[in-house]
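Hi V.,

You were right to ask for the full record rather than a summary. Here it is.
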Amino acid sequence: MSQENFNKACVLLLLLFITSVFTAMILPFLMTILMAAIFSGLAWPLYRRLRQGFGRRRSPAALVTLLVIFFAVVLPLAALLGAVTGEAIKVSQTVKPWIQRQIAEPAAFSDWMEAIPFYDRILPYKETILQKAGELVGRLSSYLINSLSSVTVMTAQFIFLLFIFFYTMFFFLVDGERILNKILYYLPLKPGDQQRMLEKFTSVTRATIKGVAVIGILQGTLTGGAFAVLGIPSAVFWGTVAGVTSLIPGIGAGIVWLPASIILIMSASYGKGVGLLLFGVVVISSIDTFLRPRLVGKDTRIHELLILFGTLGGILMFGPAGIIIGPILAALLVTVWEIYGVAFQDVLTERAPPAAGDPPPGKAARILLAEDDTKSPRA
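Predicted structure:
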């Protein structure tokens, strides 16, 4: 090994060691810094307009941008989380008595279940089904209580992290361009690949926030409003749950209003149950059908399955912030694989056509081969 290569290897080892130690040192603040970077990117257009109004002065424009975010986002969100936490506590306290009452007085439940063709098969498991459903709701409410109580209770830690968030966001706004250029300079990627990563990060973040702000708020508000009109308790809690689940493609807010309509029908409230079911199918679901492709689909351009697992995995790993971080990581994963395909296209083998003696491919394989032939005909 030459002296120059040895020096480079020592520099890389030292870089990895110091970076690892520093990352471990700021680990408690890493999520706050990441969220500050995301919101700084989203608030950049507002900051740019304000900076023009302040005569290109960056600090006053950044301060006004932070004030707008605080009064328009943080305060309403804190009030909502406080209400949701209170509702979650009520739900966790009322689920178990409701299950016990259904088991002790099973007349309405049994009458409804008798109409099912395989009623005799599930009858022995009726109490188990009710208990598992109650445990699921109880765990959901307990998770929300544990996740939100630390936010709603104004502890010193929360105030400190909020200060770190706005302090970091201030410098990201003021020095954001210089910081971003420095990060891109140190990435050993081609300028085109750097631009692709940056565009994917920005587009998916924007699409996710639009999904949260528009689809989630609309479906959550409609679901909670319908629950309140029908007299279903804890309407704010269930509306918030519907707003969160609306971000999951293929599931949406139906995971909330559909079981509620079934429970109403089981409880002999046929008018309320059928009305909620029709309202959910015609109104609530139509929001996801018509708005999601226009707000989210154009920006993400990734498969719904990746969005699903990215959202669920992000929530499990990062908590509530995973709603935003999960889809971003899924999109970056797709982008990195695309860059890999371009960088190593010389060594990647092209799929060969089936040989004469091979069995014919299945339907799915025939479709894929046909798509490849139409998109990139072989020479």
